[in-house]
Amino acid sequence: DGGITQSPKYLFRKEGQNVTLSCEQNLNHDAMYWYRQDPGQGLRLIYYSQIVNDFQKGDIAEGYSVSREKKESFPLTVTSAQKNPTAFYLCASSPTPSGGYNEQFFGPGTRLTVL
Amino acid sequence: SQQGEEDPQALSIQEGENATMNCSYKTSINNLQWYRQNSGRGLVHLILIRSNEREKHSGRLRVTLDTSKKSSSLLITASRAADTASYFCATVYLSSGSARQLTFGSGTQLTVLP
């Protein structure tokens, strides 16, 4: 998981509450990503950021929001508008803005459960 | 969805045997990557193969790419119990624009029995 930390590891939320997942990297990478993983499924892209102060929607951005005020930080907020937020959330980073040309480095993930 | 498909969904073998996983994708790619995920953990990059390459090796891993069939395979030789994990292929489609996003398959769950 080296160089990327996610917190908390487990998170419980009541319906109707917003919650923010933390992602920090000390790899000096330009690009950062948020993915969602459901049981037995692959990863789906929520949001990505190629540089500071810029981010783009991925395939399933509805009900989520992000910010990229610092190069090393890319927090994800799961809002009450997200209808089915229970999932495993993974943050990743890549050395260059064109992240797909290089490998991505993943954090250990946050498991969010809505009660 | 442009998501690729992996085959088989689950694979169980004895230690010492070889494991082969396949990945098919939909449209032209820049590169294809394989990742490993231990249960409840983040993904770890294994190998990247570019569209103009046909085969790459890394230790006990061998990856092939057939762009005419839009498919790739991952071979793990002399498997060990510690290889037990989910394996995902991820493609960078040429249509993904400047972001070069990765599109992940649904994965193969490999179990290596001691």
Indicate the structural class of chain B. mainly beta
Task: Kindly state the number of beta strands of chain A.
Answer: 11
Low-confidence regions of chain B: none
User: How would you spell out the order of helices and strands of chain A?
Assistant: EEEEEEEEEEE
Percent strand of chain A: over 45%
The best one-word shape of chain A is globular
Secondary structure layout:
The complex is a heterodimer of chains A (115) and B (114).
Chain A: E1 4-7, E2 10-13, E3 19-25, E4 31-37, E5 43-51, E6 54-57, E7 64-66, E8 76-78, E9 87-94, E10 105-106, E11 110-114
Parallel strand pairs in A: 2-11
Antiparallel strand pairs in A: 1-3, 3-8, 4-5, 4-9, 5-6, 7-8, 9-10, 9-11
Chain B: E1 5-7, E2 10-14, E3 19-24, E4 29-37, E5 43-50, E6 55-58, E7 61-66, E8 71-76, E9 85-93, E10 103-104, E11 108-113
Parallel strand pairs in B: 2-11
Antiparallel strand pairs in B: 1-3, 3-8, 4-5, 4-9, 6-7, 7-8, 9-10, 9-11
Question: If you had to describe this structure to a student in words, what would you say it looks like?
Answer:
The complex is a heterodimer of chains A (115) and B (114). Chain A is mainly β and 115 residues long. Chain A contains no helices and eleven strands. In chain A, the strands form two sheets. In chain A, strands 2, 4, 5, 6, 9, 10 and 11 form a seven-stranded mixed sheet that branches. A four-stranded antiparallel sheet of chain A has the order 1-3-8-7, with no helix packed on it. Chain A is globular, with a radius of gyration of 13 Å. The termini of chain A are far apart. The mean pLDDT of chain A is 91. With 114 residues, chain B is mainly β. In chain B, 0% of the residues lie in helices and 56% in strands. Chain B contains no helices and eleven strands. Chain B has strands spanning 5-7, 10-14, 19-24, 29-37, 43-50, 55-58, 61-66, 71-76, 85-93, 103-104, 108-113. In chain B, strands 2, 4, 5, 9, 10 and 11 form a six-stranded mixed sheet that branches. Chain B is globular. The mean pLDDT of chain B is 91. At the A-B interface, strand 5, strand 9 and strand 10 of A face strand 4, strand 5, strand 9 and strand 10 of B.
